[in-house]
C-alpha cells in the first residue's frame, strides 16, 4: 500500500492533468449540442471498429475449427467411397456395405513443409499413437501429397512428391496407359510423367490419376493435368509435363491413407509366383 501511495504521489501532476482534461471535455460536450453529437458519433465509430475486430478474430478462430471439421468429413466420405465402390472401366460395381473397407483415411494437419528444395518433406501432427507408420500414402484436398517416411509418437515425416526419392505409378485417365510420376521440373506446381510410349495419344488437358495397387494410393486418385507434350526424335517415349492437382506450397489439412486389404493382396500375389 505504501508503494502505491508513493507511485500516486510521483504521478500527481499527470493525474491532475487527466482529471482536469476529463472535466473540461465533460463540460464542453454537455454544454454544446454540436460537440455532443460529434462525441457520440466518434464513440460509436470506435465501438463499431472494436466490434468488427472482435468479430474478425472470432471468425478466424472459428474458421480453423470449421476447416478441421470439413477435412474430417471429407476423410469419412473418402473412406465410404472407397469401401462401397470398385471401378472396373465402364462398369462400377457396388459392394455390399457389410463387406470390409478397402481404405481408411484419417485427418492430419501440416505443421511444417518445404517445396523448393531438391528433396522436400512435410511434418504432420499425427504419429505412431494414431497408428501412423512408414509407407502410408498422404493425399490433400485435391490430389496426392507424398508418402510417410518416418513417425514418432506424435508426429510423422512425409516424403513429398516434390523430390527424386520415389517415383509413383500413375495413368492417363482417358486411355488407361500408365507411366511414372517424376519431379524433375524444379517447379513445385508441375511434374513429369515418363515411360509413356509415343504411340499413345496424349492431349493437353488429359487428367492423370493414381494407378493403385501399390499400398500407397487408391486407384483413380487425382495427380494432375497434362499441360505440355513434347516428343524427342531420339526417344521412344513422350515427354509429358503435368500441372499438379495439389498445391504443395501451402499448409493445411491432409489425409493419411491406410490400405486395409494390402496384406491380403500381397499374400495372394506371393503365392501366385511360387513354383
Key words describing this protein structure:
275 residues; alpha+beta; Thrombin, subunit H; six-stranded antiparallel barrel; six-stranded antiparallel beta barrel; 4 helices; 33% helix
Order of helices and strands: HHHEEEEEEEEEEEEEEH
Spatial order of the strands forming the largest sheet: 3-4-7-6-5-14
- Integer average pLDDT: 79
Number of helices: 4
CATH superfamily of the domain at 100-272: Rod shape-determining protein MreC, domain 1
Q: Please tell me the CATH architecture of the domain at 100-272 by its name.
A: Beta Barrel
How would you describe the shape? elongated
* CATH topology-level fold name of the domain at 100-272: Thrombin, subunit H
- N/C terminus separation: 93 Å
The biggest sheet amounts to: 6 strands, antiparallel, barrel
Strand content: 25-35%
Report the strand count.
Answer: 14
Backbone CA Rg: 30 Å
Ranges with pLDDT <50 over ≥5 residues? Answer: 84-99
Structure, explained:
The structure is a single chain. The protein has about 280 residues and is α+β, with helices and mostly antiparallel strands. It has a domain at about 100-270: Thrombin, subunit H (Beta Barrel). It is built from four helices and 14 strands. Strands 3-4-7-6-5-14 form a six-stranded antiparallel β-barrel. A hairpin with a 6-residue loop joins strand 12 and strand 13. The longest helix has about 50 residues, at about 35-85.
Short description:
The protein is of the alpha+beta class and 275 residues long.
Secondary-structure map with pairings?
Blueprint: H1 2-10, H2 12-30, H3 33-84, E1 85-88, E2 91-94, E3 103-113, E4 121-124, E5 137-139, E6 144-151, E7 156-160, E8 168-172, E9 178-182, E10 190-194, E11 207-210, E12 222-231, E13 238-244, E14 253-259, H4 262-272
Antiparallel strand pairs: 1-2, 3-4, 3-14, 4-7, 5-6, 5-14, 6-7, 8-9, 8-11, 9-10, 10-13, 11-12, 12-13
Amino acid at each position: 500500500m505504501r508503494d502505491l501511495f508513493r507511485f500516486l504521489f510521483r504521478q500527481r501532476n499527470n493525474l491532475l492533468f487527466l482529471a482536469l482534461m476529463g472535466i473540461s471535455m465533460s463540460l464542453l460536450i454537455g454544454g454544446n449540442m454540436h460537440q455532443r453529437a460529434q462525441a457520440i458519433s466518434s464513440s460509436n465509430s470506435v465501438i463499431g471498429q472494436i466490434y468488427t475486430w472482435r468479430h474478425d478474430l472470432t471468425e478466424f478462430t472459428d474458421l480453423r475449427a470449421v476447416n478441421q471439421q470439413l477435412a474430417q468429413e471429407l476423410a469419412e466420405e473418402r473412406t465410404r467411397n472407397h469401401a462401397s465402390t470398385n471401378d472396373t472401366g465402364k462398369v462400377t460395381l457396388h459392394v455390399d456395405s457389410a463387406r470390409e473397407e478397402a481404405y481408411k483415411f484419417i485427418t492430419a494437419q501440416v505443421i511444417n513443409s518445404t517445396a523448393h528444395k531438391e528433396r522436400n518433406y512435410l511434418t504432420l501432427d499425427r504419429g505412431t499413437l494414431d497408428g501412423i507408420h512408414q509407407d502410408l500414402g498422404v493425399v490433400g484436398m485435391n490430389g496426392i501429397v507424398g508418402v510417410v517416411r518416418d513417425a514418432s509418437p506424435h508426429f510423422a515425416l512425409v516424403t513429398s512428391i516434390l523430390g527424386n526419392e520415389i517415383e509413383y505409378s500413375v495413368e492417363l485417365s482417358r486411355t488407361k496407359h500408365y507411366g511414372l510420376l517424376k519431379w524433375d521440373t524444379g517447379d513445385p506446381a508441375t511434374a513429369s510423367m515418363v515411360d509413356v510410349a509415343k504411340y499413345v495419344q496424349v492431349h493437353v488437358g488429359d487428367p492423370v490419376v493414381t494407378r493403385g495397387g501399390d499400398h500407397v494410393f487408391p486407384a483413380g486418385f487425382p495427380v494432375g493435368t497434362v499441360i505440355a507434350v513434347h516428343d524427342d526424335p531420339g526417344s521412344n517415349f513422350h515427354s509429358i509435363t503435368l500441372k499438379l492437382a495439389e498445391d504443395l506450397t501451402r499448409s493445411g489439412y491432409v489425409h493419411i491413407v491406410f490400405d486395409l486389404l494390402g496384406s491380403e493382396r500381397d499374400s495372394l500375389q506371393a503365392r501366385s509366383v511360387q513354383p
